[in-house]
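Whiteboard transcription, Tuesday session. T.W. wrote the structure tokens on the left side:
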């Protein structure tokens, strides 16, 4: 009673999670999604850094020095042997005016990389959600398989007890009773096997969700209707997927990004023009005290000087580094264009296969429903004849196996249809995780 009470309490306290809730939990706690978020943050930082490169860079400098022995007098520029102390102050600024559009292309490339980071993050989220959906449906399948096997085991035990009574009445032979007992043992084995499969499915789901082992939760069955007329418009879904799928968008942004990298590499052949300006002053005194100098404030003001200038750097020879950079950027662009073609082809094939599978599993489910109804009627009829001694235990076993297989096929086609329907909706632009239904 104590154990039953504890189990009952645990069952009540266990949280029941839907497929969308499981996928949302997995995305929130996923390691791969967390890493992709960090990569996106780096992309945002690179964009801000690229924009900041256009602003002037300002630096300040303060220095102090003491001269002993022979040195140059800063006032007369003659050699002297007195000990002196001096310090200087400067403030300078510089900014690029023209660099072959390298800075502009760097900003554009960083902006595209940031947009690509959002697409890559969505890809990571979608992959985790797909993995959870597969593990989730496995749990549902094996939970129902345990139920079906349990029902079949209970029915088999009932038939075994009936066979024993008929044997005592002389209406069944010992061989027939042994055959029924063998059937019961077979269903008992199947029931245990399905329980083990369910336990492994739970472990896989927890691992995919990154759920702590000591957290109790249960899954909610998904309710949906399967109709054979629910045909997916393949061409329309393909067009929508190529337009808005995250994998395609990421590859398109990669091509755009590498085009800008290529343009930036070619900009290294152009001159670089920079503007610089600054202000400086200094202070000087005699440590021997034999000669008086103006005060610090006076020298700081009177020795002050300003400058402004424009410089231009012409690239002549740099050990083929610019040429190598241009060629490397061009090859990276070509690889990105080839990858885009491959991704578009892969997504198109995935969409066509998902649509075909959804339509196929829809038809299989409707056929499986009819098969279950027919198998149930056949089993009930043979079971009634078996109770009257009109059929053998082997015929009963054959009918039971057919019914069990029909139920399993119906469950499998139903869950597979649900997965493929979700995938078709995903390629049509509907998010995998629906928070509000």
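and on the right, the sequence the group agreed on:
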């Amino acid at each position: 009673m104590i154990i039953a009470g504890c189990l009952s309490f645990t069952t009540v306290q266990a949280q029941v999670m839907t497929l969308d809730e499981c996928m949302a939990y997995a995305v929130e706690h996923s390691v791969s999604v967390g890493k992709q978020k960090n990569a996106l943050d780096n992309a945002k930082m690179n964009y801000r850094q690229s924009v900041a490169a256009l602003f002037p860079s300002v630096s300040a400098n303060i220095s102090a020095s003491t001269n002993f022995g022979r040195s140059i007098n800063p006032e007369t520029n003659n050699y002297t042997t007195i000990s002196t102390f001096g310090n200087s102050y400067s403030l300078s600024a510089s900014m690029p005016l023209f660099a072959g559009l390298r800075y502009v292309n760097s900003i554009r490339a960083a902006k595209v990389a940031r947009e690509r980071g959002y697409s890559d993050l969505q890809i990571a989220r979608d992959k985790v959600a797909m993995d959870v959906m597969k593990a989730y449906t496995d749990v549902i399948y094996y939970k129902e398989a345990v139920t079906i096997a349990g029902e079949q085991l209970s029915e088999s035990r009932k038939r075994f007890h009936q066979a024993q009574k008929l044997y005592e009445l002389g209406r069944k032979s010992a061989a027939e009773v042994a055959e029924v007992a063998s059937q019961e043992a077979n269903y008992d084995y199947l029931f245990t096997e399905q329980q083990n499969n369910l336990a492994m499915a739970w472990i896989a789901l927890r691992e995919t969700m990154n759920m702590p082992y000591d957290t109790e939760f249960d899954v909610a069955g998904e309710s949906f209707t399967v109709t054979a007329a629910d045909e997916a418009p393949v061409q329309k879904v393909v067009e929508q997927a190529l337009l808005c799928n995250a994998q395609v968008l990421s590859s398109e942004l990669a091509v755009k990004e590498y085009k800008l990298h290529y343009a930036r590499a070619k900009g290294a052949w152009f001159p670089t023009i920079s503007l610089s300006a600054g202000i400086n002053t200094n202070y000087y005194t005699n440590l021997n005290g034999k000669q008086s100098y103006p005060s610090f404030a006076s020298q700081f003001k009177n020795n002050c000087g300003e400058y402004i200038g424009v410089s231009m750097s012409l690239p002549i020879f740099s050990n083929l580094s610019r040429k190598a950079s241009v060629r490397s950027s061009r090859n990276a662009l070509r690889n990105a264009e080839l990858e885009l073609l491959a991704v578009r082809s892969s997504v198109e094939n995935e969409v066509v296969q998902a649509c075909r599978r959804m339509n196929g599993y829809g038809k299989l489910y409707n056929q499986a429903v009819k098969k279950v109804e027919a198998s149930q009627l056949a089993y009930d009829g043979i079971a009634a004849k078996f109770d009257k001694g009109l059929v053998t235990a082997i015929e009963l076993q054959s009918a039971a196996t057919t019914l069990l297989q029909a139920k399993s096929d119906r469950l499998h086609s139903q869950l597979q249809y649900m997965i493929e329907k979700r995938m078709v909706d995903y390629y049509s632009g509907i998010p995998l995780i629906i928070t509000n239904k």
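Someone added at the bottom: Residues 50 and 270 are 19 Å apart (CA to CA).
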